[in-house]
Every structure is written in structure tokens, then in C-alpha cells.
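Help! Submission page says 'invalid entity' but I think these are all valid:
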Amino acid sequence: MMEAAELKRLLEKYYAAETTLAEERALKQYLEQHPAQQVSEQPFFQAVNEFKLLDTPIQEFRTSSSESRIHRLSVWRRTLRQVAAVAILALTTVAISQSYRRYERNKAEALLQQNVEADLMRISNLLNQADANLNNAVKNAVIPGLNN
Amino acid sequence: MKAQFIILLLLSLSFNLAFGQERNSGKADDSFVDAYFTTYAKMPGYDAQMMGEAMVKRLNDKEAWKHPSIARIMKQVKTYKNLSMPVTPEFTSSMLEQLDQQVKKDRRYDQYYRKVTANSTVIIYTRGKQLIKEIAVVSIAWGHLTVSSFIGDQIDLESVRALSENR
């Protein structure tokens, strides 16, 4: 005769999908023999009733080969997921670093372009100043001489 | 045989005396910045930048220049170099003295224009006699030195001068 505590433990294990086949068989057997109304833990046995109504035969779905296949598949899936995550991370890093490099290059290029334009304008102004100074010097030197 | 050897030796010595100095004074493709300012590279605040041929070409192809006259000049330019660094008045006077001596000794560059005021000094140098291959401008004002150099095969000084008029 299964005790209430044991029954409770088994049911909890069952709902957590942790029961062994033997435990499930024992549980089913017990519940077939004891209708829910006779048991003091009423809330549990409402669920138990549903369990009984389902009346699904306990079947062993897992064989050792299928289990190892499932295990292999899950390992593969996990590995693939990890590889995909690493690839996505690497691609994102590369994309971000490339766009940052492009931004820095454009910034440097724009700055240099500004320098070039400013320098050309400065040289142009200086050359004009040089011409103007030369003209003034010639004018000052030659015109008084002509007047004399 | 001995006499021939002595003549050859004398010829080689005179050749070295005549042209040796110029050949040792830097590569022909060097810019003004490379020729006279690399010795200051370890000074604090030294900042040199270069716009290479590919970048100049790319900007020319993109028609990125602000003014058509600048675009026309930049088609004659292959490389642009720029240097800037903070300088003290003491350093400035010794540096200018040294620069004058080196340029005179080197004979590759001609001083085209020099303007000295109480607070600033600006000197324009050119390289090349018939065809101007480089224009460099050294400017020292308010404790800051900037040197810019435009290198090309044939830079038209007149179009550079006219730039500020055509603006």
C-alpha cells in the first residue's frame, strides 16, 4: 500500500516528467485501485482523475539507439546554434569595425580636403599680396623718378 | 697607366665635389616636409598628414572640391603633405635659421616669397625652374608652425594666384 507522501512525491515527479517507467506503472496501478474520492488529498486527485480518464497505456518510446540519436541530434543542434551565434557575433563585429574605419577614413579625408582648400587659398592670397607689394614698390620707386 | 689612374681619380673627386652635395641631400621625390622637417618628428605635438596620389585622384574623380578652380589646380597635384606643431619663439628663430641654411645648401628649392611681421612669418618655396614640381608654404604664427606642400609634375603658379580672384 502506497503512502500518501509517497503518492505525492510520485505525482510531483510525474508532473515534472522525471518518473521512471517502473514508477509510472506503480502510480497507474495504484490510481486504478483507489478512486480519487477515497483519498484525503483532494486537489491532487482531481488531477489524478484526469490522468485516469486519459488511460493511456504506458509505452516505452525510447530505446537505447533512439536515445543516442536524440542525444547526437541535440549535441549537433547545440553546436550548430553555438557556431551560428559565434558567426553572427563575428560578422557583426567585422561590420561595425568596417563601418567605423570607413567613418574615420571619411573624417580624415574631409579634414585633409579642408586643409588642401585652405592652404591653396592661403598661397593664392600670399601670391596676390606679393604681386601687390611688388607693384607698390615699383610704383613708389619709378613714379617719383619719372616725376623728377 | 699610373697617369691615367690619377686622371680618373681626379675626375671622380671633382665630380663628387660638384654634384655630391646635391645628390646626398635627399631623394628627388621627397616633399619639402620630408626634406627639412622629419628631424622634428619626435617633438611633442608633431602632426604630419599626407594625401597620396590615390586619394587625390579619388577626390578629383568624385568632383569633391568646393570650387572649380581648386579642382583644376588639384588635377596638377599628385601628393599633398601637411605638418603642424606648436613652437616656441626661441625654437622658431633657430629653426628658420637652420631651414634657410639647408635650403641654400640644398639648391633644390627657391624661396619665392617671404613675409615677416611682428607675430608671423610666411615663406613660399617652389621646386623646379621651368616646370614647377612643388609649392611649399611654411607658416609660423602665434606659436604654431604649419608646413604644407603640393607636389605635381607641372603646377601652374598663375592658376594658384588667380584662385582667390576667381572665388
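Support: the input was valid. A stray whitespace character was the problem, and the output above is from the cleaned input. Chain B touches chain A at residues 49, 51, 55, 59, 64-67, 70, 73-74, 80, 82, 112-113, 115, 122, 124, 135, 137, 139, 148, 150, 157, 160-165, 167 (CB under 8 Å).
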